[in-house]
Specification:
- This is DNA-binding protein.
- It comes from Portibacter lacus.
- The chain is α+β, with helices and mostly antiparallel strands and 82 residues long.
- It has one domain.
- It has 4 helices and 3 strands; from the N terminus they run βαααββα.
- A hairpin with a 6-residue loop joins strand 2 and strand 3.
- Helix 2 packs across helix 3 and helix 2 crosses helix 4.
């Protein structure tokens, strides 16, 4: 799936408090792995595989090979915030 980096960040910022932890628990991954998925770069405490960023407008284009984290995040956003 292709998405702009800015859109990925907008989705993250719409998440309710505690969502990063809930996503991590649901997928049995480190919280930092979820943060890295949304643009953080602290790989010592959490890895992210299958995410590639290409230069371009809106922070570049992100190719997500696995959309599980994104799908769960979107399901946690309240209607009207999309």
């Amino acid at each position: 799936m292709h998405i702009t980096f800015e859109e990925l960040r907008r989705i993250k910022h719409k998440l309710p408090t505690g969502s990063i932890n809930k996503i991590a628990q649901k997928l049995d991954v480190e919280e930092q792995t979820v943060r890295n998925y949304f643009g953080a770069k602290k790989y010592r405490d959490g890895n992210i595989v299958g995410k590639h960023i290409q230069p371009g407008p809106d922070g570049g284009f992100v190719l997500l090979e696995d959309t599980k984290i994104l799908d769960i995040a979107k399901s946690m956003i309240q209607p009207g915030q999309s």
